[in-house]
Amino acid sequence: MAIAATLPYIALKLAWLSGSQLGIPEGSRLRESGPLLQAVNGVTVLMDVALVVLVLALTRPWGRRIPSWLLLVPAGVASGLLTPILTAFPTQRLLRLLGAGTDPAAAAAPREPFLDDWVFTVVYTGFSVQALALAGLFVPYARERWGHLWRRRTGMSGGPRALAVAAAVGALVAAGTQIHWALGGTAGLTPALAADRTTDTAIVGTVHALCALAAAAGALLLAFGWARSARTPLALAWVGGAEALSWGGWLFLAALIPGSDPAKEATATLQLTYAGQMITGVLAAAVLTRFLTARRTG
């Protein structure tokens, strides 16, 4: 199922790489396909191909012989990138069905064409199926291979505690900023960026905020021993940290790329927010890694 769910996305990207403009309306800046856009399309195709390899590794005997880090790194990236899609996309669609996700002012304003609506439906539905299938494969695999580490008590001293506290500080700053924007605040945004804020972007920003807070909570629980079982803290640090690191890093890099409209260039506040997400994810991953490594050697 996970492999089948990648096919529409890969096919669409390959069509664009070959020069097709399927799903790209007239007037969209995506019709001006330059080297950078082609490179991004190529990278995203490779990422979906890597997901296919990961699924095979989780379901084939040879996957048990892969070094832990070589499996966990792509699994973490996949988990991080797919988490907000699995949570935000259904929420957005549900609100639209209920008539609560439409912004009257934004709907009345002329919008710059980007992609046909069916593209988002096909792609994000495929991503959601990928996320569910990957979780269904990875959790049993992880339980079988590393489950004995989950039953140990939490708690560390020294460096991991400092890292967890730093992750909490970064998460509070990044999450606070995202929640401010989700509630309609405009501090740190240009007028053009503020005008582009919608219910959909508010939902995505809320997911980013919650994941950063989850990463920090998991790191604190692991480092300070505030949980009897490691299962919940590990899940929080894994999912939240992976999302914060993956999306924080992706958005931070995207913000560095000059756009066609100077009024919509990423502000310093936006870049710092994305950097805060990324740093929170890195710190949570460091605490999680130290915890598992210490338990394994112990």
From TrEMBL:
Keyword Transmembrane helix on entry: yes
Stretches that traverse the bilayer: 36-57, 69-89, 118-141, 162-183, 203-227, 234-257, 272-292
Keywords recorded for this protein, A-Z: Membrane, Transmembrane, Transmembrane helix
Gene source species: Streptomyces antimicrobicus
Superkingdom in the source lineage: Bacteria
Name of this protein: Aromatic ring-opening dioxygenase LigA
Entry keyword Nucleotide-binding: no
